[in-house]
Amino acid sequence: MRDWQTIEVPKIQALSRPVYLRSQSLPARHGFPLHTHPWHQFVYATSGTLMVTIEQARYVITPEQAIWIPTGVRHTTTALSDVEFRNLYIEAVPHVGMPDQCSVYAVSTLLRALILELAAIDQDIDLSDYRNHLDAVILQQIRQLRRLDFYLPWPQENCLREICEILYNHPDDGRGIGEWAAFAGMSTRTLARHFTAQTGMSLRVWRHRLRVFRAVELLATCRRVTDVAFELGFSSASAFSFAFRSEMGCTPTEWIAQ
């Protein structure tokens, strides 16, 4: 497997419109370094799978989803597979009507069509009235999207972060909370309390979500469902399918077909 490659963040000094579209192709295992924007960003890819990382969470984004990144949030965006970007940069004005923290949304069929229409417009032709109307409809659609809860919170305490990094890289690691507490040099009760306080969920629930999170990454690279199940530490493909469906609402096979 080839190494990850870093791509320079595009140098855009200011937005020429309230809604500015930037299209780009991003090869697998390529991404942008940690950076911020003086505007909001709606990260969307018409094809491929992205991972967006902020300090406290990692988000996997498929073409059915997009992530809202408010202005000033430090983040990286990397491609888990070959990706076609259709990013929206949105002017940071008062009353934009969106949350002030990163949020994942289900992209509607209409919004996808509007974004593709925006990308298809010939910039050399004066379509200012049409563009203004299209921008307004896109913003209204974004405000109406259904918010999703599929993300992976990341603790701030160093020993907890180390545990999470190990599990992220080795999701089949079968150690229980008692063994992880000994690894971290604390009691089981203390580890459980600190982990829940910093992530909002228990280590058991977090590990379940991690495995589904990693499953999306692996399935996006066209891996076989059975191979992914065993790599993640499941005892069988059926156990993996049940866990995946409980989080994603569909089986791994159905997700691949979509």
Span of the ends, CA to CA: 26 Å
> What percent of residues are in strands?
15-25%
Number of strands: 13
CATH architectural type of the largest domain: Sandwich
Q: Describe the main β-sheet briefly.
A: 7 strands, antiparallel
Structural Rg = 20 Å
Provide the structure class.
alpha+beta
CATH fold-level name of the largest domain: Jelly Rolls
CATH level 1 class label of the largest domain: Mainly Beta
Global outline? globular
* DSSP helix fraction: 25-40%
- Please give the count of helices: 9
Keywords summarizing the entry:
258 residues; alpha+beta; Jelly Rolls; Arc Repressor Mutant, subunit A; 2 domains; 7-stranded antiparallel β-sheet; 6-stranded mixed β-sheet; 9 helices; 13 strands; 40% helix
Structure, explained:
This protein is of the alpha+beta class. It has 2 domains: 5-148, Jelly Rolls (Sandwich), CATH 2.60.120; 155-257, Homeodomain-like (Arc Repressor Mutant, subunit A). Helices cover 40% and strands 23% of the residues. It has helices at residues 109-120, 128-143, 158-169, 177-184, 188-199, 203-219, 225-231, 237-248, 252-257; strands at residues 5-6, 19-26, 30-35, 40-43, 45-47, 50-54, 57-61, 65-69, 75-79, 83-90, 103-106, 146-148, 152-153. Strands 2, 4, 5, 8, 10, 11 and 12 form a 7-stranded antiparallel sheet that branches. The protein has a 6-stranded mixed sheet with strand order 1-3-9-6-7-13. Strand 6 and strand 7 form a beta hairpin. The two termini are 26 Å apart. The model has no long low-confidence stretch (mean pLDDT 90).
